[in-house]
């Protein structure tokens, strides 16, 4: 783990894996909740966590502490499971089935049986990068991205599952669709998913 000062009041902490980033994010949230860390924002990504708005006048001191700290394991989710009803009818379902060496129905069964967790958010408001599928089910992005992916499309790319909150270009392998609203500015909070949220996909008929 390496912590790098960013300006006067921020740190970027680099780790080696997604799981370490999730564990670090959870530990920093715990420290902030108990009052041992004063920071405005804690923003996880694939292998980094950004601490922005530190009250400590010497971020380098905190950087040194974090660089030598041992990470605890990822704690059990502290949030309720978000269930997303999905129709496994995506245009890339057959291609993913071929990559996995199973039938399309088995893709749906495997995906719905996994216990997902939001690792981090990005790309578009409300878009969560979900981990939970075993590594052997990682798939490449499409060689040619689509110019338009409909809102509610459930896709796979690398180790991640994601749901498109709005229509946009995209190169993920689309295996299903959902009517769940991922982003609603009139809702509090606006995002259905946030880092650390446990997610379960529930198959429904088309």
From TrEMBL:
Instruction: Tell me if ATP-binding is a UniProt keyword of this record.
Output: yes
Q: Quick check: keyword Nucleotide-binding in the entry?
A: yes
What keywords sit in the KW lines? ATP-binding, Hydrolase, Nucleotide-binding
Q: Which residues form the Carboxyltransferase domain?
A: 1-193
Single GO MF annotation = hydrolase activity
Q: Which residues form a coiled coil?
A: none
> Which SMART domains is this protein grouped with?
AHS1 (SM00796)
InterPro entries annotated for this entry?
CT_C_D, Cyclophilin-like_dom_sf, PxpB
Entry-linked PANTHER family: 5-OXOPROLINASE SUBUNIT B
What name appears for this protein in its UniProt entry? Allophanate hydrolase subunit 1
